[in-house]
Write a structure and sequence with these properties.
Helix content is 47%, strand content 17%. It contains four helices and three strands, in the order βαααββα. Strands 1-2-3 form a three-stranded antiparallel sheet. The longest helix has 17 residues. It is flat and about 45 Å long. The termini are far apart.
């Protein structure tokens, strides 16, 4: 497997034939974000738009196997609200970078 910077064409390959399990997970995530009346299409469109934006901003990478796109990974942003040094240490071990401590 190799990783390369994502392109818009990768979206077509990744989102075609989306597994039914992912369909329900997208819908559940949308509901948790405050839209109890969201449809799968709403959640799906929102997810694709998020990936499109990340690709335009060069914040997405595509995982390829034998030249075929398997997944797109967007840049993750996390916040650590704990003031405990041991907690921050574990975030750093996991590879998180902090803008400010």
């Amino acid at each position: 497997m190799i990783v390369r910077r994502s392109a818009q064409v990768d979206l077509l390959r990744i989102f075609e034939d989306l597994a039914p399990r992912l369909s329900s997970e997208y819908l559940t995530a949308e509901s948790y974000q405050g839209d109890a009346h969201a449809t799968f299409e709403d959640a799906f469109r929102k997810a694709k738009n998020g990936f499109r934006k990340a690709i335009r901003e060069n914040r997405a990478d595509t995982l390829l196997m034998d030249g075929v796109p398997l997944a797109i990974v967007r840049t993750l942003v996390a916040s650590n609200w704990s003031a405990r040094e041991d907690v921050q240490r574990w975030f750093e071990i996991l590879g998180y970078e902090f803008a400010c401590n």
